[in-house]
Design goal:
There is one protein chain. This protein is of the alpha+beta class. It folds into three domains: 6-127, Quinohemoprotein amine dehydrogenase alpha subunit, domain 2 (Lipocalin); 145-236, Beta Barrel (Lipocalin); 246-417, Glutaredoxin (3-Layer(aba) Sandwich), CATH 3.40.30. Helix content is 18%, strand content 41%. The chain has helices at residues 2-24, 293-309, 327-340, 359-363, 400-417, and strands spanning 35-41, 49-58, 61-68, 71-75, 77-81, 84-88, 94-102, 105-113, 118-127, 145-151, 158-167, 170-177, 180-181, 185-190, 193-199, 204-213, 216-223, 230-236, 246-248, 261-264, 270-272, 282-288, 314-320, 347-349, 376-380, 386-391. It has a nine-stranded antiparallel beta sheet. It has an eight-stranded antiparallel beta barrel with strand order 10-11-12-14-15-16-17-18. A hairpin with a 6-residue loop joins strand 17 and strand 18. The model is unreliable at 1-28 (pLDDT under 50).
Length: 419
């Protein structure tokens, strides 16, 4: 017995020593070099998704900032073993596994866990290149403004709103759909050619198109993670405000009451909408998931709003739908939100996977509409009745429409508080 214990201890020490040796054996030539990098996720059809990141040192560790237009997404979970490097994205359950070929090049894979499946894409990055796409000629047109876009699908076309800001060859923007926006996209206009891309650890997108005029875009293609390309086109259309995204504007007052008891993902205690703390209060339910990019944008807004207005008599509850219905796996996935955001209201476990077609019936059996978008928001009045359901979130990338969303949110809560 004693010999077995010594053998086990020596084996464990050997493993620790080996990891230490591997982590130290990389020469300076194998270190991840500081500075700007140009990365590409490589599709089999050659339409690669480009993005940029910057590497710096902070407190004796490497920090990566991934850039998309105005956004900088910090990544601080980086492990190097010899010439291998593992970069874990802060959200969305994805990471990079790559080799440092030399100071100026990485080569490996981007891996994203969708719960029921895992996707992999070849990955390559070159140090010292700040370009995303190259513009070879002056732009023939300027497409700044809002556009009515059509995304072609096999079964049903989807309408979206394109929002672009073009300065000479450079262009930034996003697409807004009824379920949320595509976050920050960045690219170029070269002649009559448009190229825009975005990467945040979940979204990996490339949009290309031909700009026929200041009023029409054709021959568009959307490329993403290991999926067949989709067509898109757009016509110029100015929107003073966006189409209504309230799934139920006029739920008859007093007709649908919220009723649930779910486990708090931090304290493990049961939270019920009928608890004393919520009686006589306006309650906002945040429907979210750690895998959802728009939830990443919505959570800072929600946490700030709650902290600034809770004394008025409004309470928030987050209801989490992960890619699995397993509590421990879901709790682990959501830890990134708890680490990055100061959330002072409970987040409870739905017990239902986000892909479950019956998730509405299982959590909100009396709700007259399906929860089909993440995030979604449910507004509950002081009597405990559901009054409004909002699909999606107009994130910061949507500019003035983001501001309109915040104003509308405030107006709804204030009107319920005034009753």
């Amino acid at each position: 017995m004693k010999k077995d214990l010594i053998k086990t201890a020596l084996s464990s020490m050997g493993t620790i020593v080996m990891i230490f040796i591997l982590s130290q054996c990389g020469s300076h030539d194998q270190e991840l070099k500081n500075g700007i990098w140009r990365a590409e996720l490589q599709r089999e059809d050659g339409n690669h998704i480009f993005f940029n990141f910057n590497v710096t040192d902070s407190s004796d560790q490497k920090i990566i900032n991934i850039y998309n237009a105005e956004e900088s997404l910090q990544v601080d979970s980086i492990i190097q073993l010899g010439d291998s490097i593992f970069i874990h994205m802060p959200f969305f359950g994805s990471h990079f596994e790559a080799k440092i070929l030399h100071k100026e090049e990485l080569k490996g894979e981007w891996i994203i866990d969708y719960g029921s499946r895992t996707e992999r894409m070849p990955f390559r990055a070159i140090q010292g290149d700040s370009s995303r796409f190259r513009a070879y000629t002056k732009p023939k047109h300027n497409i700044s403004g809002s556009w009515e876009a059509i995304f072609k699908n096999e079964n049903k076309d989807t309408k979206a709103i394109g929002l672009f800001d073009q300065k000479d060859n450079l262009i930034t923007g996003t697409f807004l759909t009824p379920t949320g926006d595509y976050r920050y996209l960045q690219g170029v206009v070269s002649g009559d050619s448009l190229k825009m891309s975005g990467f945040d650890g979940c979204h990996a997108l490339l949009f290309t198109a031909k700009i026929d005029s200041n009023e029409h875009i054709s021959d568009g293609w959307i490329y993403s993670v290991n999926r067949e390309a989709r067509k898109w086109q757009a016509e110029k259309k100015e929107y003073e405000s966006l189409p209504d995204t309230y799934a139920t504007k006029n739920i008859p007052q007093g007709s649908v009451k919220a009723d649930f008891t779910l486990k708090d993902m931090r304290t493990l205690t049961d939270i019920s909408i009928t608890d004393e703390i919520y009686k006589g209060k306006v309650v906002v339910l945040q429907i979210l998931g750690s895998w959802c990019p728009n939830c990443l944008d919505e959570t800072p807004f929600m946490t700030n709003y709650y902290d600034e207005n809770r004394e008025k008599g409004v309470e928030f509850i987050g209801i989490d739908f992960e890619r699995t219905d397993d509590f421990e796996k879901s709790k682990k996935a959501l830890n990134s939100f708890f680490q990055r955001f100061e959330i002072n209201y409970p987040i409870v476990f739905s017990g239902v996977a986000s892909s479950d077609p019956e998730l509405t019936e299982k959590v909100f059996p009396d709700l007259p509409v399906k929860i089909s978008a993440f995030p979604s928001t449910i507004f509950i009045d002081k009597e405990g009745f559901i009054r409004k359901v909002h699909s999606g979130f107009n994130g910061p990338a949507t500019g003035k429409y983001h501001e309109q969303y915040k104003e509308e949110f405030h107006e709804i809560v204030e009107s319920l508080l005034a009753e």
